[in-house]
Amino acid sequence: MLEKNSRIAEDAAIVDEAIISRRSVRAFLPDMVDDETIRAILTVAARAPSGTNMQPWRVYVTKGEVKQRISDAILNSGIRAEKAEWDEYRYYPDQFFEPYLSRRRANGFGLYGAIGIGRREVDKMRAQHDRNFIFFDAPVGMIFTVDRRLNKGSWIDYGMFLQNIMVAARGRGLHTCPQAAFAPYHRQIRPVLDIPDEEVVVCGMALGYEDNSKPENEFRTDRAPLEDWVTFSG
Q1: Where is the Nitroreductase domain (predicted)?
Q2: Which of 84, 108, 135, 149 is deepest in the core (most CB within 10 A)?
Q3: What's the pLDDT tens digit per position in 95-128?
Q4: In whole angstroms, what is the distance from residue 119 CA to residue 100 CA?
């Protein structure tokens, strides 16, 4: 029994470390990730649960010239992020309220503060946000879509799939950054990847090796204590 409990504790520690060490990395090294590793991550991630095993995910993996074409299409569109139209789905509420407003502000101030951008330096904030569209220099950029005929349940399933990718990446020494910022630029992305009209662009994701020399990667978010959001009964 002691041996079994020890093995369980060791396994739990490995899984917990992959989950806890996952974070949104915003500066990557140019070191390439081989296709075999990407395939292994996606294969594992596809074990995510989905209602009646529908597996609603669709992934476009891009590198090199194709990834650059996505970046160019967005950055040359003339559409600033704050003016981009979220016409396929709404990620955020129209009006933020507590406690979410405070958490959002703390995240933004913390990130920009880590890289020396002041609260009124709008141009610098925009430039940092635009780094989303070059996948923060990651060698691999993924675009995720879902069939628009599916319902909210499939979007819940999709979230579990995305989390699996990020955790599986950590198990291989890689980092990620999930990026909803790509969603309102579906018109620019579609022709590059030949995405059919029946697919909604859900988000993008950067994948690669963290650049530890960059200050933005020193930023850490916190989490609300359990007591703030859990109710135990019985």
Answers
A1: 20-209
A2: 135
A3: 999 999 999 999 999 999 999 999 899 999 999 9
A4: 19
The sign of the torsion formed by the CA atoms of 47, 49, 55, 56 equals: negative
In angstroms, the CA 148 to CA 202 distance is: 10
Alpha helices in 83-217, H assignment, sequence order? 100-114, 122-130, 152-170, 186-193
Decide: 187 and 162 in contact? Cβ < 8 Å: no
**Maximum alpha-carbon separation in the chain:** 64
CB 221 within 8 A of CB 20: no
Structure tokens at 80: 């600033």
Q: Decide: 42 and 169 in contact? Cβ < 8 Å.
A: no
* Model pTM score: 0.96
Number of neighbours of residue 201 by Cβ within 10 angstroms: 24
Q: Which of 6, 179, 168, 143 is nearest to 69 (CA)?
A: 143
Helix (H, G, I), strand (E, B) or coil at 112: helix
**Burial (0-12, 13-18, 19+ Cβ within 10 Å), 162:** buried
